[in-house]
Amino acid sequence: MTARTADLVVIGAGILGTACAWRLAERGLNVLVVEQSSPASGSTGRSAAGVRAQFTTEANIRLSQLSIEEYAAMPESGYRPAGYLMLVPEAQWPMHQAGVALQRRLGVPTEELTPAEAQVHAGFDPAGLGGCTFCATDGFVDPHGLTLEYLRRAREAGAHFLLNTAVTAIRRSEGVWRLTTSAGVIEAPQVLNAAGAWAGEVGRQAGLDIPVQPARRMVFTTGPLAPQRQVPMVFDLASGVWLRSEGERLILGRADPADTGWREGMNWDWLEPTLEAALLRFPWLETADLDRRASWWGYYEVTPDHQAILGRLPGADGWLNACGFSGHGVMQAAAVARVMAQEAVGEVPFIDITPLRFERFEQVVSGAADIQV
Question: FAD dependent oxidoreductase domain: which residues (predicted)?
Answer without folding.
Answer: 7-342
